[in-house]
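Input sequence (168 aa), recorded before submission:
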Amino acid sequence: MMASLEGRARRLGNDVNTDYIISSARKRATIDPSVLKQWLFEGISPAFAASVRAGDLIVAGRNFGCGSAMEVAVTVMLAAGIEAVLAESFSRTFFRNSVNNGLIPVECDTRRIRDGERLAIEIADGRLVVSNLSSGERMEAAPLTGIALAILDTGGLVGHIVRHRGWR
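Predicted structure, token format:
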């Protein structure tokens, strides 16, 4: 997989659970991500959804995506134009839901990344390098390997199954 992303850092904290990403109360009427994106992160920052731009990158601390295994938490971020989340660590379920839906989970040291800074992510054969274009700092992120890399290379699990007519 070869990919390059560039975007504005949208800084969040530690332990951002799936209900903070999209509130369970909002899912009572619909689970359509194109509708739900208007309430993205409303419990953390009520103005977030109105200010998000396609290409923005979520930057968080530890344990991002903890809580319930709601796949819609990932699909709502994708619907808002967010293609990657950088975090110090992810809940296991959120990480898999991200890969399966084509949202790139980037595990790296995010402590020095500030809100609004410009970031670039280079992915080459599973190796991830994050460049902070605002500060000039570069860092290696945890590599993406095996089936996770193969699934992301096709944009998600459905694309992978279609391309390979199974789990190859």
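Checked by second reader. The chain has seven helices and seven strands.
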